[in-house]
From TrEMBL:
PROSITE patterns: ARF. GTP binds at residues 67-74, 116, 172-175. This is ADP-ribosylation factor-like protein 3. InterPro entries: Arf-like_GTPase (IPR053254), P-loop_NTPase (IPR027417), Small_GTPase_ARF/SAR (IPR006689). It comes from the Eukaryota. The keyword Transmembrane helix applies. SUPFAM superfamilies: P-loop containing nucleoside triphosphate hydrolases (SSF52540). It comes from Capitella teleta (Polychaete worm).
Length: 229
């Protein structure tokens, strides 16, 4: 997707808007444009070009959603984009990035979902700047890939820009029998002994089956708002 198309969508916020970028280059180009807009907004506030009433509005918070391919990130983003789970389309694998703008929340949230395929993971660190909350989605039914997910998460947490950033471990696919509980997912990611002084680690269980209502989505949204406030 061309950055100009992305920018037009980004400027015209609806209550819930999903903007899709295909491929690493397109995704990162869109992300750079997003960062530039953030800098311009901050500069305008510093220079006094923003009226006081507008300046008192809550500042937008950036949320980063990561996880291996197949963990269900796109389904969760789709759930967060709607107040109900009906009339939704089957999500496609993310080959670049999806952006969800929740500008009616308080504070406004911009959620960046980055593809989890092996070819995309090397770009994850390019998107961590100014992250307020990290969402890490785990397929709670795929125990064979838990070690792989663990390694990718801890590789990411080595980035100093994520120091102290709260993490929500999402144990997805709770509708499937035998799924790990949220606490078990935290343990499998090696975060159960993390000191609260180091960072907040929270967990939640979700589900997004194609033929049933979303599970845990509203709780996740409220948790995001609480952490971002």
């Amino acid at each position: 997707m061309a950055s100009s198309h992305w920018w037009a969508n980004f400027e015209i916020y609806q209550k819930y808007a999903i903007v899709v970028g295909v491929g690493a280059i397109a995704s990162f180009t869109a992300y750079l444009a997003y960062l530039q807009k953030q800098k311009m907004d901050a500069s305008n506030r510093d220079e006094g070009f923003v009226d006081l009433a507008k300046d008192e509005e809550p500042t937008e918070r950036k949320v980063l959603m990561l996880g291996l391919d197949g963990a269900g990130k796109s389904s969760l983003l789709q759930g967060l984009s709607s107040e109900r789970g009906d009339n939704r389309q089957a999500p496609q694998a993310t080959h670049g990035s999806n952006v969800l703008c929740l500008d009616k929340e308080n504070p406004p949230l911009t959620i960046w979902e980055i593809g989890g395929a092996e070819s995309m993971r090397k770009y994850w660190n390019n998107f961590v700047q100014d992250t307020c909350i990290l969402l890490y989605v785990v397929d709670a039914c795929d125990e064979l890939r838990l070690p792989e997910s663990y390694l990718e998460l801890h590789k990411l947490l080595g980035d100093d820009r994520l120091k102290g950033v709260p993490i929500i471990i999402i144990a997805n696919k709770q509708d499937i029998e035998g799924a790990l509980s949220p606490l078990q997912a935290v343990h499998s990611m090696g975060l159960d002994n993390t000191s609260p002084n180091e960072r907040k680690v929270l967990s939640i269980g979700t589900s997004a089956p194609p033929d049933a209502p979303f599970g845990g989505i509203n709780d996740l949204k409220q948790l995001l708002i609480k952490l971002a406030s």
